[in-house]
Design goal:
Blueprint (H helix, E strand, L loop, with lengths): L1 H51 L5
């Protein structure tokens, strides 16, 4: 069953891969700031939770 699944998925991945590789350079400038903002939000959230220690909000 799993091998049949792999047999179906691998050709699809092989087909999609070149397109994905072509798109990556365009996505990089979009993903980088989003990842940065996400990291900042996580850091701030941890800091706020660490400072307040109140589950009220």
């Amino acid at each position: 069953m799993f091998l049949q699944f792999l047999g179906a998925v691998v050709p699809a991945i092989a087909t999609i891969a070149p397109a994905a590789v072509a798109v990556v350079p365009f996505l990089a400038p979009v993903v980088a700031p989003v990842a940065t903002v996400a990291a900042i939000v996580v850091a701030v959230t941890k800091t706020v939770e660490g400072d307040l220690k109140t589950p009220d909000f």
